[in-house]
Amino acid sequence: MRGWEWTWTTAVIASMIWAFLALTFLALLPSWWLYFADQTLRWRTFWLLKLRDLIAAGEIVTAFAVLFGAAYIMQEVRHKLRGGSAEHRTGGYR
What we know:
There is one protein chain. This protein has two helices and no strands. The chain is mainly α. It has a domain at 17-23 and 33-81. The longest helix has 36 residues, at 46-81.
């Protein structure tokens, strides 16, 4: 694992997969849930509508947190594998 490097090809494929997952979990699933709750479950009373919206919003927030958390963990693993110190380099002239 220490000798593995991102190439342009793997980076592009990984980012396309990441974008597909983000669109699926942040847009398609909440939309599907709203239609499902309305059409199939017939949640049309005031409190059931609020519960339907709360479930959709919770799914969006959870997916957002998981995506950013996974990106953070991947970055930290990368720093450990590359022998990065506690201070992260930000670029610029050395």
